[in-house]
Design a protein that fits this description.
heterodimer; A: 127 residues; mainly beta; five-stranded antiparallel sheet; three-stranded antiparallel sheet; 1 helix; 8 strands; 46% strand; globular; B: 385 residues; alpha/beta; Peroxisomal Thiolase, Chain A, domain 1; 2 domains; nine-stranded mixed sheet; two-stranded antiparallel sheet; binds zinc ion
């Protein structure tokens, strides 16, 4: 990934910065140009709590290029308490002990190293 | 709008074609379709393909294939919609003919996957997903579909053994398909004992990696009646899209885009699910076959396993499905898959399906998925009497 592309995404990846629609109040993550609930285009930045519940998960055993050294690792869909759903790695746990419905919280972690460039972002861990 | 017909079909065997490149495969399938139709004057070439830019460093496939076929001057373009690239290319081709923009359209789907390493192909497949919020996190395409499988099993209490029956039947159907990649029988035990790729998906529930190309020739139905002995009519060609990423949807166990494209297609054709005699579904992962049977109305939500257990999707069953092996056993050369489905339905409707012929098949339905239920095309084909 290019450095400028990486920096552009930093507020979302470092702080879970979403957007609240001024028209209908819907919270979006990542932020969108058009609210898909009301069609509105006015938003204000809203930092998300990072607190949520694990809805579904899997354990990746054959990773894509760039993640070879990390497998096996868990990936899950998390519903944040703001109602937003995000996809992320589930870390700091034995994947075999995960279960749907578990309370999780966001943590900042190294995602991968890409040619000497270390990329960071959110993961979730059992709360 | 004009009615559209398919007047020629052709394909290569799916497999590891170490001696054939992307262009060779596309040309071979195209020439077979042109020879089948005895039609060599083509206005427009559409190439369904997903990964040539990444895997072959080759784009601009429309003109590349048109020129290779000697079709100087033809309109040409590549059509990309992830794993639905083939179905989408057929869909756009139908629009060109129906609208009167073209009088003969060659649609060829092609993918060359076996020159690359598995991590490279895994990365290329994940390009169907949001790079910044799904792939960035290390989600593989298999992994995202594994989330669907887990959610589906949990929601309906469906057992893995029940899902494993789907690829067993696909392999059985592929035994009689000379173009299939995997022509050997498998058992539920073999599926369950195969390695786990992403929990709960076993290797034998997942379509493999293969090279292949399939082609169809489209014409207005009125002209096709004179030009072809056995034209097949395109009764409906539709497409629908959903929220881009699976995790942003409310329900992970059903695809809205399947339901919407089917509803539009059935309405356009004036038909219902029970009018379909033969079905092609996008079983890139076995659970997707079950979900498709439910979303298309052949089984109640969570009940597809019962239909499968009772022999409902076998030849002679209630709704014979993936009669040439489906993605799992025929093979899944990604951008070609949606065109293979159409080729196979045409063979059934012409009565040319050999040992796997569905007796009296008059109408067929094909569902092709791009991404995790994100872009879905629907085609309903009918025999012309
Ligand atoms: Zn809104």
């Amino acid at each position: 990934m290019s450095a400028s592309g990486y920096l552009r995404e930093a507020p979302r990846r470092y702080r879970l910065e979403g957007a609240a629609c001024k028209g209908c109040g819907a919270i979006h993550f990542p932020p969108r140009a058009v609210c898909d609930r009301c069609g509105g285009r006015d938003f204000e930045a809203r930092e998300l709590s990072g607190e949520g519940e694990l809805l579904a998960y899997t354990i990746i055993r054959h990773p894509p290029k760039g993640f070879e050294g990390q497998a096996p690792y868990a990936i899950g869909i998390v519903q944040l308490k703001e109602g937003v759903r995000v996809l992320a790695q589930i870390t700091d746990c034995d994947p075999a002990e995960l279960r749907e419905g578990a309370k999780v919280e966001a943590v900042m972690r190294r995602i991968r190293e890409d040619g000497g460039f270390i990329e960071y972002g959110y993961k979730f861990r059992p709360a | 709008m004009r009615k559209t017909a398919i007047v020629g079909v052709g394909c290569t065997k799916v497999g590891e074609h170490w001696d054939k490149g992307l262009r060779d495969l596309a040309v071979e399938a195209s020439l077979r379709a042109m020879d089948d139709a005895k039609l060599y004057d083509v206005d427009y070439v559409l190439v369904g393909n997903m990964m040539s830019g990444y895997l072959q460093n080759q784009e601009h496939l429309g003109a590349l294939v048109a020129d290779s076929l000697g079709l100087r001057g033809a309109g040409a373009a590549k059509i990309e919609a992830a794993c639905a690239s083939g179905g989408m290319a057929v869909h756009i081709g139908c629009q060109l003919v129906a609208s009167g923009s073209a009088d003969s359209v060659l649609v060829v789907g092609v993918e060359k996957m076996t020159d690359a390493t598995t991590p490279e192909v895994t990365k290329a497949l994940a390009m169907a997903e949001d790079q910044e919020y799904s792939a960035y996190m290390g989600a593989s395409f298999v992994g995202l579909n594994a989330l669907v499988a887990r959610a589906y099993m949990r929601a309906y209490g469906v057992k893995q053994e029940d899902i494993a029956l789907f690829p067993v039947i696909c392999h059985k159907h592929a035994l009689n398909n000379e173009f299939a990649q995997f022509r050997f029988p498998i058992t539920v035990e073999a599926v369950m004992n195969s390695p786990i790729v992403a929990d709960p998906l076993h290797l034998l529930e997942c379509a493999g990696i293969g090279d292949g190309a399939a082609a169809v020739l489209l014409m207005p139905l009125e002209e096709a009646r004179g030009a072809s002995d056995s034209p097949v009519e395109v009764l409906a060609s539709t497409v629908s899209t959903d929220k881009f990423s699976l995790h942003q949807r409310d329900d992970f166990t059903s695809f809205r885009a399947t339901r919407a494209s089917a509803e539009a297609a059935f309405k356009k054709a004036g038909l219902r699910a029970e009018d379909i005699d033969v079905l092609e579904v996008h079983d890139a992962f076995a659970v997707l076959g079950l979900i498709a049977l439910e979303d298309l109305g052949f089984a109640e939500r969570g009940k597809a396993a019962d239909l499968i257990r009772e022999g409902g999707i076998e030849i002679g069953g209630e709704i014979p499905t993936n009669t040439f092996g489906g993605l799992k056993a025929r093979g899944h050369p990604v951008g070609a898959t949606g065109v293979y489905q159409i080729v196979e339905l045409v063979r059934q409707l012409r009565g040319e399906a050999g040992k796997n012929q569905v007796p009296g098949a008059e109408r067929g339905y094909a569902q092709n998925i791009g991404g995790v239920g994100t872009t879905i095309t629907a085609h309903i084909l009918g025999r012309v009497d």
